[in-house]
Amino acid sequence: MNFSSSPVVSLRDVAIYQDVNTVLSSVNFDIEKGEFVYLVGRTGSGKSSLLKTLYGDLPLLVGQGAVAEFNLGKLPRKQVPYLRRKVGIIFQDFQLLFDRSVAENLAFVLRATGWRDKSKRKQRISEVLMRVGLDAAANKMPHQLSGGEQQRVVVARALLNEPVILFADEPTGNLDPLVADEIMQLFQEINNQGTAVLMATHNYEIINRYPRRVLKCEKGHVLDSNVQEFSLISGYQAS
Ligand SMILES: Nc1ncnc2c1ncn2[C@@H]1O[C@H](COP(=O)(O)OP(=O)(O)OP(=O)(O)O)[C@@H](O)[C@H]1O
User: Fold this and answer.
1) pLDDT digit of tens for each residue in the chain (239 aa)?
2) Sign of dihedral through CA atoms 97, 55, 77, 81?
């Protein structure tokens, strides 16, 4: 059987819920291996809810969905950690453990995902830190790093288990424009090496500088720039 052509994300007639409220309906799109896709839409339009459904934080109750060959509609809670090993998740607020070093933050995740061999953990930690340009930071505490460096550690953490896709929710939201651009370049490098990326953002400057396919949450639906033209800005209230 050849799985190589199956998309990393596939949604058919999906509805996204928060509690009993429908946030998005009739959601249909695929994300192919190695694709880079932005997710936009005004505040409250459903971007985070969609991402949460894709990484198993919200249940898929209506429609069919698959991520990294996990069937979201039939995903027992027990299976969620296995899905999480196939995807990398990056939030706006860094969520590092501030009472331990960078290396210990990464080792914590490796231990929790079944890496029993200490020397292999050490090797993997140095590989991912090298990949995000932070090879000298292993023994630093998070508070000794800048915001951009902390976000790089979060990216390194998301890469530990070689995910097929990164889900990033406003990864540059708390960073100044120059640092945001550096993080964006890092995402591009990671993407160029074959990892798909789905990135929710309000940063239209970044989208204009690095144009890619865009999914837009609007009026309870998801528009897809591969299917129809739409304005990035409409319905968005700049602050
Ligand atoms: N935990 C929750 N419980 C109930 N409703 C929620 C919850 N989180 C979000 N919602 C509601 O779901 C809808 C979509 O919110 P969501 O956070 O997905 O939007 P968003 O596009 O990610 O917004 P933002 O750009 O501000 O992050 C909103 O109406 C919001 O109020």
Assistant:
1) 444 578 999 999 999 999 999 999 999 999 999 999 999 999 999 999 999 999 999 999 999 999 999 999 989 989 998 999 899 999 877 689 999 999 999 999 999 888 999 999 999 999 999 999 999 999 999 999 998 999 999 999 999 999 999 999 999 887 889 999 999 999 999 999 999 999 999 999 999 999 999 999 999 999 999 999 998 875 444 33
2) negative
Q: Sheet with 9-18: list strands edge to edge.
A: 21-31, 9-18, 62-67, 70-71
Which of 19, 23, 55 has most ligand 1 atoms within 8 Å of its beta carbon, as the pocket-test mutant? 23
Q: Whose CA is nearest to atom 16 of ligand 1?
A: 46
Query: What is the predicted ipTM?
Result: 0.95
- Report yes or no on whether pTM surpasses 0.90: yes
Q: Is 45 in the pocket of ligand 1 (CB under 6 A)?
A: yes
Domain ranges of the chain: 9-224
CATH number assigned to the domain with residue range 9-224, chosen from the 4 options 3.40.50.300, 3.40.710.10, 2.130.10.120, 1.10.10.10:
3.40.50.300
DSSP symbol at 46: S
